[in-house]
Amino acid sequence: MSLGWSRRAPVDTLVSTETALEFAIPLAELPRVAHELIAKDGDAKGHVRFSRQLGQAVADLQVKAQPEVVCQRCMQTMRWPVDVTSRIALVVDFDAADRVPEGLEVFLVEGDSVSVRDLVDEEVMLALPAVARHEEGSECAGRELRLPGQEAEAPEEAAAAQVQKPFAQLGELLKRK
Ligand SMILES: [Zn+2]
Questions:
Q1: Of 15, 27, 38, 60, which residue has the fewest beta carbons closer than 10 angstroms?
Q2: What is the structure's pLDDT at 5?
Q3: 138 C-alpha vs ligand 1 centroid, how far in Å?
Q4: Which long-range contacts (CB under 8 A, 24 or more apart) does 165-170 make?
Q5: pTM (2 decimals)?
Q6: Would the pLDDT of 160 be above 60?
């Protein structure tokens, strides 16, 4: 079947026909990602293939993007390389989400249909940093110590923020109910 990245299609159809698609989606067209970015130029590029694995509807997704984020240390913009390969379980409810084998990501499908845009939006969101910073050893890394009145973020806090991210989508859905 033919499928554009913006079109929602029934998960059953996508997996039974093993639909595969190459895409280049403008970051501005990814609703949650665009909301996080100041500059919305550039594309998320990659490919996706739907199939059924051990009875579970999955999407194998590879996506690359170079969104512009703001370094929270020097407040300058920087490109944040996103290069994600993931196997995503497409589930229709929380019970099904509990049964997803380890190693797979979980995407909660609303109304039995999904678009490639939905999946890419979620994956790029997960790949965006909780706190963006230039690499250690870069010019701005030395600045941190000299900034008066500003505490460096504890590494544990940054790690905790990262851990919560995979559940961001479920959390949002719960809030809506
Ligand atoms: Zn910086």
A1: 38
A2: 94
A3: 8
A4: 165/125, 165/126, 165/130, 166/105, 166/106, 166/126, 168/125, 168/126, 169/107, 169/108, 169/122, 169/125, 170/94, 170/97, 170/106, 170/108
A5: 0.77
A6: no
